[in-house]
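Table S2 (text version). Query chain:
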Amino acid sequence: MILKIVEFFSLLIKMNCGPIVFVGPSGIGKGTIEKAIMGKNPERFAFSVSHTTRAPRPGETNGVEYNFIQRQDMEQEIKDGKFLEFCEIHGNLYGTSFAAIRTVTESGRICILDVNIDGALAIHKTDLKPFIIFLKPVSLEALEARLRGRGTETDEVIRVRMHTAEEELRRLEEHKNVFNLIIVNDKMEETIEAIHQGLKDHYGYDPLSK
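Corresponding structure-token output:
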């Protein structure tokens, strides 16, 4: 397993396609930004589908939004070293498997990841040469309004997510050196432009250009 992981890292470094990693509170708009980036050049990017033990929400499809998996199966795969990073959020496991990233990388595309701060810290310690972005809300009040606007969570779930968001923003201050870009996601066009410039500087070419 260790040899396979070393070979995996070597593949990404050789291809100069370290992953783009998005971090930020639930409801900040990571999914919207990620889709916008991929839409600029679909042949260059692909989203790594994370694993989770939570139940699918209405409209979600296995293998699209997430790879939905039983907790005991995911715990075993974690023990077997099949995950680059994993964490537990609100009682459910989430993680990024080596297989999911390899699928994207072997297609010659740049992998887009969506993780929490612990995941970002784990990826930062590797030789993957990631570009790690933290999306901040304009304010906690604005973030709560976004969550309520989705209409998919109860008041209790929103309360928990807001508590988590406060903790993430606190930890951001402790780990600013991990992030290549920290940006307040107020206007999507400005956020995408800032990310675009950061990617050009990071990769040494314009990955959004077709």
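Notes on Table S2: The two ends are 37 Å apart (CA to CA). The CA atoms of residues 1 and 7 lie 10 Å apart.
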